[in-house]
Design a protein that fits this description.
globular, 9 strands, five-stranded antiparallel beta sheet, alpha+beta, single chain, about 45% strand, four-stranded antiparallel beta sheet, 3 helices
Length: about 160
């Protein structure tokens, strides 16, 4: 059993946890994600409709070769004075339908408080479509966690 848990921990993953805040309008989320070699975690805030919009786009992704879908919250630019930056970018990596999900996150900290990472997860379109469906359902605010892996996913 411990081997299964360890294998899952090192597998490419995207996990969202929801914490009560100003719902149903503003969500307080923590994203934990990794590609097996690199991982990161970021607390951020978003509009409930953001999840439905991103979920719908990923559910239908890709529509054609060269297609992409980007979701971005905050900014890395100091003059924008954001507490964090999150960028999720789904893209096609070749003409036969292989895809990736690039995840970039930063707490915009300075000095020893700085935390940032950027990596991609290789995924087939069906896996990204499944993530889209999970995000859409998660946006209904009936679940506290979303767990997505390249091979499966579930809501808690």
């Amino acid at each position: 059993m411990n081997q299964e848990i360890e294998a899952r921990r090192n597998a490419p993953h995207f996990i969202l946890q929801r914490f009560p805040y100003e719902e149903p309008h503003v969500l307080n989320l923590v994203l934990s994600a990794g590609n097996g070699n690199l991982a990161g975690k970021l607390e951020f805030y978003c509009n409930t409709l953001d999840l439905a919009d991103l979920g719908m786009k990923l559910s239908e992704f890709p529509k054609a070769p060269g297609d992409y879908c980007t979701y971005e919250r905050g900014s890395r630019l100091p003059e924008h004075r954001f507490a964090y930056h999150l960028r999720l970018h789904a893209y096609t990596s070749d003409s036969v339908g292989h895809c990736g999900l690039q995840i970039a996150m930063s707490n915009n900290g300075r000095g020893p408080a700085e935390e940032s990472c950027s990596f991609s997860i290789s995924a087939e379109p069906a896996a990204l479509n499944r993530l889209g469906s999970l995000l859409t359902t998660f946006g209904g605010l009936n679940h506290s966690e979303l767990h997505w892996y390249v091979s499966d996913g579930h809501l808690l």
